[in-house]
Amino acid sequence: MNMVSPTIAPDACAEERQDLPTRAEAEAAMRVVLAWAGDEASGDAARNLSTLIGGSAPGPALKREYPHDFRVDPGYLASLPDLQNGPESLIKGAKAEIQHVGISNFRLPIRFHTRDGDDVTLETSVTGSVSLEANKKGINMSRIMRSFYRHAEERFSFEVIDAVLTSYLADLESYDARIQMRLRYPMMLRSLRSGLEGYQYYNIALEMLKTEGETRRIIHLDYVYSSTCPCSLELAEHARTVRGQIATPHSQRSVARISVEIASGKVLWFEDLIELCRQAIPTETQVMVKREDEQAFGELNASNAIFVEDAVRLLCKALEAEPRVGDFRVVASHQESLHSHDAVSILTKGETFRQLSYDPRLFDTLYHVG
């Protein structure tokens, strides 16, 4: 008897092949089955199912409870992987030197010594960085914080920053390093005529750099003042005297960021730098104001009308006359009440702050928000 082999239509074969699951679908189905099977059956079920789809069997089932009683011994600590501090072969990208790598906005309370002999504790944001040689994968960033905490309980000064820098230069085996600390420093400000007092807060940053055996100490200060436009003042007075027309000159809140390198062996208190700015530009914004103070402030502004070019030059003159100040930079922004844009200026002295390019968002950071 002749046997006739059954035939399958080509379309049916194609349809059958389309119904076969992909590997991804099979693995997804395996995970569903494992979930149904539960923890006890998951080990054997996983091995059987993974074999069916051509995969490798997973390891033993993992524990799902936190081990409160686990203790780390030296042997276990030595076994932990450390990819960040791994060999040169693990470097991704160009094997290039990195000028700065570290942490930013690490915050803690720091005690600062005031010019009057008191201490004040302020929340301080710390940025710490070191250089990284081209043949090193990375650094252990937690060492920067550990180095800082070893000295943070001491009365704070540039000498303590120096101790921190020395510590983490040694810990991280780097050839240069820097620390920058940002804070808001309170000073009591007396009103112009009423005698009221209130706290003015100043955005200040301390910075220390150690590079090529040289140490530099820098203070950054944002000084906020009112600027009355001289041109607008003259035009307003012209309208008053020639046409009897009342007119007001335009004034605006303005910010100057002063960065100064402190001369070697000298001490420059925060209060000293703030008072230097007040003497150069006396129209500092006020804290407590009554009617007589508001009138006085208008008179003070009219007596000290300045363009943004005047502002940086006045501060330059004051800084040049201060023997405790070395190189410096003054960046000013007058946030115009007349125009839809700001008037800005940068003046530098010395090589420390000289630069051909500046951050395109530099002037955006000079807005004072109270």
Explain what the structure shows:
The chain has 370 residues and is α+β, with helices and mostly antiparallel strands. It has nine helices and eight strands. Strands 1-2-3-4-5-6-7-8 form an eight-stranded antiparallel β-sheet. A hairpin with an 8-residue loop joins strand 7 (325-334) and strand 8. It is elongated, with a radius of gyration of 34 Å. It starts with 9 loop residues before the first helix and ends in a 21-residue tail after the last strand.
Uncertain runs are 1-8, 12-16
N- to C-terminal separation? 103 Å
The radius of gyration over CA amounts to 34 Å
Major sheet description: 8 strands, antiparallel
CATH architecture of the domain at 186-370: Roll
Q: How many strand segments?
A: 8
The secondary structure category is alpha+beta
What is the strand content?
25-35%
Quaternary structure of the protein: single chain
The largest sheet has its strands arranged as 1-2-3-4-5-6-7-8
Range of helix content: 25-40%
Task: Give average pLDDT, whole number.
Answer: 86
- Supply the CATH class of the domain at 186-370: Alpha Beta
What name does the CATH topology of the domain at 186-370 carry? Answer: Urate Oxidase
Taken in chain order, the helices and strands follow as HHHEEHHEEEHEHHHEE
Number of helices: 9
Shape: elongated
- The CATH homologous superfamily of the domain at 186-370 is called Urate Oxidase
